[in-house]
Design goal:
eight-stranded antiparallel beta barrel; 3 domains; mainly beta; Immunoglobulin-like; Lipocalin; globular; six-stranded mixed β-sheet; about 50% strand
């Protein structure tokens, strides 16, 4: 009788726990506005829950109207935080949301620039208030899924949140034979030699088979060169060998002492070798004033292109243009005027370019002061018949300013 009573009490206790856990994510549901009306970051957030799917729709400060960042999948963690990642052509923004009251929410944003501009990563923190009538009723009573360790893992069952995977975190595409970077974040204090040994593996979500790619990695923050009291977590290099079969995967990082672990929220794809997988980059871009009176301002840059696929390519063409922001006024355009007649696979090719920006502005009677963007596209017409899922890295951008 006592055993039955204990079982009944335990069942009641568990039933009480689950709705409470789900209520945590429901606290986030609704429309939120930035408490700072003069913010230069995120202005509005709209959070929804449908079944086990959590989404965050964000808008950023722009003129004359806010920019729509779009919708990103989010993951709810047991430390009552909600996390989402936004990826654009120039940056990757990791969003961490924390409730600070019934109608108050804190948002921390880590911005990592991917446009090769040399800009450093930075963090920002914003406060949000629930908009009037912003509460949205969840469409489910099902507790959202929380990632768990694979069977046979010797780490703790519930992660502490001291180490977290940032990227890949869902929908990325990797190809066998290429090298990628795994981004992660640690929360322990960065001081001299404060590193913890971790292993990093790729888990096939269909078979649960794990492939260890880094058996021992010194996880922790390192100082940014020439920047006092600034630290970052360097990306982990990952070589996708042919021993890792094509399929859907998640990244898993685990401290070797078994004290903590994390797994990417969403699945990403690994493909076998392909014929064509072009990538474009802008390097060594700079403005130079070549006359003593500063009446001649040239934009110098190099366009770098590589085929990560296995095929030798002929006549790979490049487009580029310069736009003045924020109106995106066309200043200069080159359509397939340059390119490479013969490209061997897995080899970088570069084409130095130069544009007299002030002359182009004068011809269009446009003032010179302001911000600009250089946009470069390789094989814009897709004459090389590249699969669309590989074309996301066919473009590159460089932002600059004339004062």
């Amino acid at each position: 009788m006592k055993k039955l009573l204990c079982l009944a009490m335990g069942a009641i206790f568990l039933l009480a726990l689950f709705p409470a856990a789900f209520a945590g994510v429901n606290d986030y549901v609704g429309k939120w506005t930035n408490a700072d009306l003069n913010t230069r970051g995120i202005t509005t957030l709209h959070i929804t829950v449908e079944g086990q799917r959590i989404t965050v729709h964000a808008w950023g400060k722009c003129h004359p109207q806010d920019c729509d960042w779009g919708t990103a999948k989010a993951q709810y963690y047991r430390d009552n935080t909600l996390r989402a990642v936004y990826t654009t052509k120039i940056a990757k923004r990791s969003l961490v949301l924390t409730m600070e009251g019934a109608n108050t929410m804190k948002a921390q944003v880590l911005t990592h620039f991917t446009d090769k501009s040399g800009r450093e990563d930075y963090r920002s923190s914003e406060s949000f208030t629930r908009a009037a009538g912003g509460t949205v009723t969840s469409t489910t009573g099902t507790r959202p899924a929380v990632v768990a360790p694979v069977a046979g893992s010797r780490t703790v069952k519930q992660p502490k949140g001291e180490i977290k995977i940032i990227s890949p975190n869902g929908d990325e595409v990797w190809t066998q034979g290429n090298r990628y970077g795994i981004e992660y974040e640690t929360t322990w204090k960065p001081y001299l030699n404060n590193f913890k040994d971790a292993s990093i593996s790729l888990k096939n979500t269909a078979t649960n088979q794990e492939y260890t790619i880094v058996p021992r990695w010194k996880a922790g923050k390192q100082p940014i060169p020439n920047r006092s009291n600034r630290y970052y977590n360097p990306a982990v290099p990952c070589n996708v060998t042919k021993n890792i079969p094509p399929g859907k995967y998640k990244v898993r990082i685990a401290l070797l002492d078994g004290s903590d672990w994390d797994e990417s929220n969403g699945e990403f794809t690994i493909h076998g070798p392909v014929d064509v997988d072009l990538v474009c980059d802008i390097r060594h871009a700079k403005l130079s004033y070549t006359a003593f009176d500063n009446k001649r301002c040239e934009l110098e840059f190099q366009v770098w292109v590589k085929n990560k696929g296995t095929k030798r390519l002929k006549h790979v063409m490049i487009d580029y243009r310069v736009l003045k922001l924020p109106q995106k006024l066309l200043i200069y355009q080159q359509s397939e005027g340059i390119g490479f007649s013969d490209m061997h696979p897995d080899t970088w090719y570069n084409a130095p370019q130069k544009i007299d920006i002030l002359m182009e502005l004068a011809q269009r009677r446009i003032g010179s002061k302001g911000k600009y963007v250089l946009e470069v596209v390789v094989d814009s017409q897709n004459r090389q018949r590249e699969n669309e899922e590989y074309r996301s890295d066919n473009t590159a951008e460089f932002l600059f300013e004339i004062k």
